[in-house]
Amino acid sequence: MGLQQDNLLLIVTFSTSGLKFSLTPNFCKHLLRKIMFEQQPEAIREKVKILANKFQESNPTGWFDVLYAEAEGDTAQIPWAPLTTYPYLQDWLNISQAQGEGHTALVIGCGLGDDAETLAKSGFQVTAFDISPQAIAWCQERFPDSSVNYLVADLLALDSQWHHKFDLVLESRTIQALPVEMRSRVINCIAPLVASGGTLLVITRMQDNDVVSDGPPWPLSDSQVAQFIELGLQEVRRDFFSSEVGDSNFKLVRIEYCFIEDDGES
Ligand SMILES: C[S@@+](CC[C@H](N)C(=O)[O-])C[C@H]1O[C@@H](n2cnc3c(N)ncnc32)[C@H](O)[C@@H]1O
Q1: CA distance 59 to 88
Q2: Which residue among 148, 174, 185 is best mutated to probe the pocket of ligand 1, counting the most ligand atoms within 8 A of its Cβ?
Q3: Is the torsion defined by CA of 89, 94, 99, 101 positive or negative?
Q4: Mutate which of 51, 131, 245 to test ligand 1's pocket (most atoms within 8 Å of Cβ)?
Q5: 22 CA distance to ligand 1 middle (Å)
Q6: Is pLDDT of 16 > 80?
Q7: pLDDT digits (tens, 9 = 90+) for 130-188
Q8: What is the pTM of this model?
Q9: Structural domains of the chain, ranges and CATH numbers in brackets
């Protein structure tokens, strides 16, 4: 019997002499790192901040690929990767009873692919992209038989052929990971991806003011998300969740938008 996590393996053998456990070197390395780092989530967050700040001036999206590369296959090094569906997406799928069959979905900044896989399991025909080639290679390694179309792509330079092509667009925690100076441009690139009659789901940290915090992440403000409305989307519902890290300076928010194309008749 084997318990497999990525390429890490714990082998449990049953024999007449009882249970025998064999740990592969990778599994030992993983356990060690898990023990070291799960006790120090703050250390990983600090590492992310230092790395992001190093890239801030020259290439504000360049640090993601470095972080994934330096993790060397150890998911504990990626602070946003719980290796399961993000609960606020799962909750939305449950309450909306979304039926993906016959519908397309786009996952922006898909990271290690768990949300994309969940949407595919819900029947969507999923395209998932990330700016990090390392992240995309990792997704393909984790889910070799996946129906998801994983691609390396930059949200800020997408082909306009993708405009109005996706019935569901999922943006989970990518806007907040990019500097505030890029925010308006980032939102401008997301809004047009939603097909007529389609849904945009934004899952993000939000704060009550426009003060720029010590990120990443940099929570969004009401005035910033209002840009989605200016770009033609309509807000359907907004759900608030308590902060995951006990920081009362921000709220975790899920906003559902729909896009109804104006047919020109009024
Ligand atoms: C904070 S992580 C969130 C990952 C995933 N959405 C989740 O919730 O687990 C942000 C992700 O967006 C990706 N990303 C950042 N800038 C991007 C861009 N311009 N285009 C595409 N992906 C980007 C990063 O590589 C990273 O995987």
Answers
A1: 30
A2: 174
A3: positive
A4: 131
A5: 36
A6: no
A7: 999 999 999 999 999 999 999 999 999 999 999 999 999 999 999 999 999 999 999 99
A8: 0.85
A9: 1-39 (no CATH), 87-259 (3.40.50.150)
